[in-house]
Amino acid sequence: MSQWSQVQQLEIKFLEQVDQFYDDNFPMEIRHLLAQWIESQDWEAASNNEAMATILLQNLLIQVDEQLDRVSQEKNLLLIHNLKRIRKLLQGKYHGNPMHIAVIISNCLREERRILAAASMPVQGPLEKSLQSSVVSERQRNVEHKVSAIKNSAQMTDQDVKYLEDLQEEFDFRYKTIQSLEQSDKNSALIKQEMLALQAMLNTLDYKRKEVLNKIGRVIHEIDMLMSNMLTEELLDWKRRQQIACIGGPLHGGLDQLQNCFTLLAESLFQVRRQLEKLDELLTRLTYDGDPIPVQRPQLLEKVNFLLYNLFRNSFVVERQPCMPTHPQRPMVLKTLIQFTVKLRLLIKLPELNYQIRVKATIDKNVSTVSNRRFVLCGTHVKAMNMDESANGSLSVEFRHLQPKEMKSSAGSKGNEGPHMVTEELHSISFETQVCLYGLTINLETSSLPVVMISNVSQLPNAWASIIWYNLSTNDPQNLSFFNNPPAATLSQLLEVLSWQFSSYVGRGLNSEQLNMLAEKLMGQQVSYNDYQLSWAKFCKEHLPGKSFTFWVWLEAILDLIKKHILPLWIDGYVMGFVSKEKERILLKDKTPGTFLLRFSESNLGGITFTWVDHLENGDVTFHSVEPYNKGRLSALPFADILRDYKVIMADNVPENPLKYLYPDIPKDKAFGKHYSCQPNEVSKPSDGGGKGYVPSVFIPVSKILNDSTDPHSPSDLLPMSPSVYAVLREHLSPTVIETAV
What we know:
By secondary structure, the chain is of the alpha+beta class.
């Protein structure tokens, strides 16, 4: 079943998450129509290879053209229209930057895998539960309801101001008419009656002026209360969800809803401002003793301007945190002289501001860091915000060509770059702009979440650990001295984040048994980790007992191993991975001989091994574990092929494959057959490929077990074996005992 087919079977709450990351950058129609083709391409590799990305973009357009031909024959007018529009959009948007669409599609596929993994997990973790609280959802609905009510109130007040203007114009006309009469005419009874009517009208004007001012005051008060309480909480919650999403958590949404609220409030405040300007205009034409306008209007206008200032200041946000395109799963880790991207948005979307706001990016502005290193930003660091580049028409700007460059220290050399000093130094990318609108000038500033600057890619794992720890432990967006005294983290939350590293990076999260093993590795046997506090040093700086590496280095090496060498097996759920030797034997001891499981090595970085159970003639149970395979050996032969072709030479020198059933009882070929690089009978003959006088060879992973040994002794894996020797083996062993090699 394709990944897209699995996505379509998810519950509605997960489908809503999928819907959030498909837009005009990569329309869902294309994802649906070209599902299998899209999943069969290596978009991640193309995101770092312009030539490959160019070819993939061309092939994508060819696939769209083929779909157009098909639907044209079916005369599906709506789909024909949409596909033509999408093709034109893809061609125009990515023709000059094909790597960008490769990054987008790679991210979408990865998010799908993360959501599928989350859907398969039986229980949500504490962090994810807090982000999906019913209280938060209720507050979101209340904010939207109140904003709508405020907008309606401001519009109704517009009608009151218009009525007041009409009433004053009538009063002014009638008053001037009387004033134009001769003095003798003013003493007539009719004129005296008209004067009484004008006095009544003036009383009504006074009442209406007070009423309008009171209504304006109530609207301003409602906006003030909403901004001070619920809207501020909504914005803080969105920023917290963004932090969590950056370290692998659920994709954060809600920014479009916030933009709608901010925009409606800004429109309401500008509407109130125009109403106050209209009252000032009416004041210049008519005033009287006890007139409420000159007393109340200045205070109300000052309050409106203050609210507009705060609204604009809070609306300037970093929509997408700094990230190197080469490492999309590791945001906020930046390498010197390597480009990174960052996107900002103004949540107040007004057409008058399109291309009128120029944003300037700087680094470490007006902040003191714990680092002696100083940086400057190279590349285009001033750009105008516009509504044309974003698929949803938001007022935003994306910097795509910024590069951090380290400045020389006063001594003429670079700063201290020790293994932990550099990766615990936090820096900040700052952005500033100025909004000039309707006579108001508002200076805006915002900053990215703290970033870690590295000068060598080998520093990336520890830098990413710092980003994880910071964003897990605090919602403070600018605590650059955080690692002077890093707080402990709740182990249950840390384990949840570690599971996210696997779901976001390699497409499948960790189950409760795997997390228990990690908890034991961090805290010891049988630890109750619900409220246990883990220190930063224990996580990333102190070596594991008896080992020469830290817990995080060990885990990061496993992630790298999965990503590069066993990803399909991991996604299928066939790699138990995190299981101790003791637990492994408990699981296998009662199983059929030849039952095996796959686990990650605890003593070798980035190693994977397999252990199988065997029964001796006297009934004793024995276990055999092969020397762990690392990335060097797995680069020579796919792991699935190793499992298929693995042979053990016993004392009688007859090789056989001891691996029969993947734990608990899945036939090996059923589990891994689709991942074999060729079919079992596809064996080279001596005449095949024997050019230049060489006899072609195949690789067979072989171990030798001595009579007095329970483990393979000095396994000699990937031994070259010629077809003629292999033919001799087949004469002595049936196909059910020995599988042919590649």
